[in-house]
Write a structure and sequence with these properties.
The complex is a heterodimer. By secondary structure, chain A is an all-beta fold. Chain A contains no helices and 11 strands. Chain B is mainly β. Chain B is built from no helices and 11 strands. The chains are: A mainly beta, B mainly beta.
Chain lengths: 114, 115
């Protein structure tokens, strides 16, 4: 069963517009949740992570995500997109029952138009 | 501090050949992970080392894949013989041995193409 679902394999926004990348997880117990970003020809870089300390998590480069248990969601947002935000974004979950492995969504390619 | 490094960055081989991928984790990180992304699919876990021991190898697809981490430092992932479906990007990640909330730091990946 899919543990992480990212809605939309491709998202396109205009520069300065709101960025919203969706992630839903399936777990009976709130897991640890992560957003990673992969810029072209680079490795995955951690944007932010949720570890139950606070439901609104702020990350690097102006990104934030809110953990909503009732909706089993962990959507990533940024108020104003920059051209440099164009990349592929991955939501991942780490479940207590699966050791320390990460389970990833299929990724969302973000395009930022001038 | 150097990040996770992987070698080679790209590899193109023919079906039936052998390829060995190498990962150097961040110094001092006892956890080392291998993941793979087949084109168009999600990144999938392959295995996890704690120091030189295999903690979890449940994601290894079959016995053509052999991972080692002698001495608990760098790791190698050998595919022998390679098949077409092995093509993809192989990522290595490392993390310190602490607490359970540790962040996994990823390398740039090795892009493997089997022809």
């Amino acid at each position: 069963a899919q543990s992480v679902t990212q809605l939309g394999s491709h998202v396109s926004v205009s520069e300065g517009a709101l960025v919203l990348l969706r992630c839903n997880y399936s777990s009976s117990v709130p897991p640890y949740l992560f957003w990673y970003v992969q810029y072209p020809n680079q490795g995955l870089q951690l944007l932010l992570k949720y570890t139950s300390a606070a439901t609104l998590v702020k990350g690097i480069n102006g990104f934030e995500a809110e953990f909503k248990k009732s909706e089993t969601s962990f959507h990533l947002t940024k108020p104003s997109a920059h051209m440099s935000d164009a990349a592929e974004y991955f939501c991942a979950v780490r479940k207590e029952t699966s050791g320390s492995r990460l389970t990833f969504g299929e990724g969302t390619q973000l395009t930022v138009n001038p | 501090e150097a990040g996770v490094t992987q070698f080679p960055s790209h590899s193109v081989i023919e079906k039936g050949q052998t390829v060995t991928l190498r990962c150097d984790p961040i110094s001092g990180h006892d956890n080392l992970y291998w993941y793979r992304r087949v084109m168009g699919k999600e990144i999938k876990f392959l295995l996890h080392f704690v120091k030189e021991s295999k903690q979890d190898e449940s994601g290894m697809p079959n016995n053509r894949f052999l991972a080692e981490r002698t001495g608990g430092t760098y790791s190698t992932l050998k595919v022998q013989p390679a098949e077409l479906e092995d093509s993809g990007v192989y990522f290595c990640a490392s993390s310190p041995l602490a607490g359970g909330q540790e962040t996994q730091y990823f390398g740039p990946g090795t892009r493997l193409l089997v022809l």
